[in-house]
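Please check what follows.
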Amino acid sequence: MAETKPTATASVKATSVHTKKSGNAISWLAPVLCIIAGYSIWRFLIGDPSGFKAPGQGWFWPDHMQPKDAFHRIYDGGIIVPLLIGMFLMVVTFSIERYLTIRKALGNGSIDDFIRKVQYHLANKNVDAALSECDKQRGSVANVMKAGLRRYKEMISEGEMNTDQKVMAIQKEVEEATALELPMLQKNLVFLSTITSVGTLIALLGTVIGMIRAFTALGEEGGAGSAAQLAVGISEALYNTALGIATSACALIMYNIFTTKIDSITYGIDESGFTLTQSFASLYK
């Protein structure tokens, strides 16, 4: 009976890549806290009774009139304003969170220099030195490269597989490591992209409400004696428009900045995988 040759699946060890555990509390807690903070700023700072010549009554939405300065005049924007302020705070919060995450993912030094150093060490068949470079770089590209290098090192001494099978094993390890790194980079970017479009729509809602209020005041009593209400309605429309545009613009700018950084990291990861497979295929035939 002919002897059966072990297959690649039977010979390759289980992946050395481990699932990363990360808290997801900020994804649901931050929006709630930002909306509460937005209302607090609108109600207790912008809507401070001392900033109005004719402070109104009530707790949730006091009917203050005649603001003394431009800051307190924002209160005329109405109840949509705290929502827009909350969305702006979300942009700030998630921008800081993404900046810290992506800054860590970029690691130490230039990604291009790191890949060139690894290529140099692999060309000299010094895998341990290449692993040492990964420990120094400490970014997402280095994490993927390190996972691939560990399998690369195992495949050098593997005697039951041919070169193509070994290259496939290295490639699979790189792909599994990449699948764990990329979601961490893109996490929470959906908030920035959503605010980019939703912020403008909410501002438009506030604008429409303000214009309805203005034309309602204009129609009362034939327009006589309603100049103050007309001014409040127009102010409500314009403040909502301004806040919505500013919030959406900030969200769009930050989203584009972060996606550009992520694209550079993704390119580095792709290049690292190509480096490992091509190096092994040429040096260990």
Remarks:
- Residues 187 and 196 are 16 Å apart (CA to CA).
- Confidence is low (pLDDT under 50) at residues 1-12.
- The radius of gyration is 29 Å.
